[in-house]
Amino acid sequence: MITRFAPSLTGYLHLGHVLHMIYVWGIAHTKGAKVICRIEDHDQGRARPEYESAILDTIEWLGFTPDLGISVEQAEAASAYRQSDCAEHYTEVLNRLNQQGLIYGCECSRREIAETQSDRADELCYSGTCSEKDLPLEGNTVRFRIPSDEVIFQDLKLGECHQTPAEQCGDFSLRDRTGQWTYQFCCVCDDIRQNVDLVIRGEDILSSTGRQIQLFQLLECTIPQFYHHPLLYDKQGQKLSKRQHAESISQLREAGATPEEILGKAATLGGLTEDFGPINKNEALSLAI
Ligand SMILES: [Zn+2]
User: In a 3-state reduction of DSSP, which class is residue 197?
Assistant: First the structure.
């Protein structure tokens, strides 16, 4: 089996990432899976390349070692695991979907789409205004024609999940009008090409899973197994605010924290253990089941 740790280059790693690493490496260990490290910098408007070496350094300092992909030692050689180096691959997959008639160009602005929303949903749902206009893909948002059916999948943590992407988000975007690939599209393309068959990620991404499964299905590729883990909570059981976990691991490290103290803090805030005391990496991994 192959799973992945896929940090984005939009900031330094914080305690939420550490909890995520405990789950990824812990479950991989239980299942005998290999861990890929890939760099998610598909959004060149927001990604900052200077974060990469700091992130890789933190992963290593905490004692986590990827089996494949990008690491401190393999930063140059492994460009197939850095999204900004993979545009050709994404174009190839996009062309395949185009040949199947599964994508179209959309000229609507975000504001125009927002104006069509009838109720207050968690996210914008595109109604398909441009689906029959036959607009060029270049210079427009490229949207995926999603099937209307409900998607049912067995999450390894949450059990049976039901989602209807057509009602959640509608035909979602694979590439924006400026040519930036989207998270949803890159994630599926990468998981296919890197033979990822076990996706471990936070519950905050759960709503994306149904639509990604539809992409896997229409690309006729094997759908990975999914495990969505809980996020960090404070002592009162409230989800930590951005400000509360804004402190980066680099900052904690500079202030004198050890890897064991950081692992203990992340495991406690993640509800895996109770006392905030330091734990070593193997103890941390054994908590993630
Ligand atoms: Zn449109």
Answer: coil
Q: Does residue 154 register a pLDDT over 90?
A: yes
pLDDT at residue 136 in the model: 98
Place of tokens 């914008």: 124
Compute, in angstroms, the gap from residue 45 CA to the centroid of ligand 1: 22
Residue 73 has pLDDT above 90, yes or no: no
pLDDT score of 120: 67
The CATH fold assigned to 2-84+232-287 is Rossmann fold (3.40.50)
- Contact by Cβ (8 Å): 70, 64: no
CA distances from 225 to 6, 155, 191, 197 (A): 16, 7, 11, 6
- Looking at the chain, the whole-number percentage of residues with pLDDT higher than 90 is 81
Q: What separation, in Å, do the N-terminal and C-terminal C-alpha atoms of the chain show?
A: 16
Q: Hey, what CATH topology would domain 86-229 get?
A: Rossmann fold (3.40.50)
Cα of 112 from ligand 1 centre, angstroms: 9
Domain spans in the chain, listed from the N-terminal domain onward: 2-84+232-287, 86-229
* C-alpha torsion sign, points 66, 68, 73, 75: negative
Compute the average pLDDT of residues 228-242. 77
Query: Distance, CA 138 to ligand 1 centroid (Å)?
Result: 14
Mean per-residue pLDDT, 121-137: 93
| 143, two tokens | 């949207």
The 3-state DSSP class for residue 175 equals: strand
Instruction: Judge if 2-84+232-287 and 86-229 fold alike in CATH terms.
Output: yes
Alpha-carbon distance 247 to 12, whole Å? 9
pTM of the model: 0.93
The rounded distance, in Å, linking the Cα atoms of 56 and 6 is 11
How far, in Å, is the centroid of ligand 1 from the Cα of 121? Answer: 19
